[in-house]
Write a structure and sequence with these properties.
Blueprint (H helix, E strand, L loop, with lengths): L2 E5 L6 H16 L4 E5 L4 H10 L15 E4 L2 E5 H9 L3 H5 L8 H13 L5 H4 L1 H13 L3 H39 L1
Length: 182
């Protein structure tokens, strides 16, 4: 299976460039095979991406922005859903791939399966899970500072969304003007 990442090589938006770099860098770090498909220089790629992003996943204007991620023909998601999966350690699930043995995601799936099967007490999950729970409790004291940092990140993300929306509006106006000239 090939992961397809639809990118715009000549995007004027720094927000889009950063998101594209984040996706590609993370896939490379995990050593996941993927193909970069440029929508800026290849009209077929642009059309295929636009046609295959599900309707409920398209923005209100109907034109999805890069990066868009597919596993072969199956739509995985956009940057926001990728970022959520990354934060939740569920990137392999997001991509429709089996996590490698020993990865955090594989361990989470194993623990989830144990809980689902009814043998998920701390005794059965082992010392590693118990230790992690104790570490999380100790870290809660320092969480107040992180909440403030997360709030700052949220404001920055809002700025990125606004910048993307503005760029999208500009692109739509250019397309409309070009079609009116024809």
């Amino acid at each position: 299976m090939v992961i397809k990442v639809f990118l715009a090589s000549s995007s004027g938006s720094t927000a889009i460039k950063k998101k594209q770099q984040d996706v590609v860098g993370f896939l490379e770090a995990l050593k996941i095979d993927y193909a970069q498909l440029d929508i800026a220089s290849n009209e077929d790629n642009r059309q295929w991406m636009r046609e295959n992003v599900p309707g409920e996943k398209k923005p209100t204007n109907g034109i999805p922005l890069p990066p868009q991620i597919f596993n072969e023909e199956m739509y995985c998601g956009d940057y926001d859903t990728f970022f959520e999966a990354k934060e939740d350690n569920t990137v392999y699930e997001f991509l429709g791939l089996t996590p490698p043995p020993g990865s955090k995601e594989a361990q989470q799936a194993e623990n989830s399966q144990k809980l689902h099967n009814g043998c998920g007490t701390e005794e059965h999950l082992g010392d590693d899970t118990t230790r992690k729970a104790a570490e999380e409790e100790e870290q809660e004291e320092g969480e107040e500072d992180k909440v403030e940092d997360n709030h700052l990140v949220s404001e920055a993300e809002d700025d990125l969304v606004s910048e993307e929306e503005e760029e999208l509006r500009e692109l739509e106006e250019e397309e409309e003007n070009a079609s009116e000239e024809d």
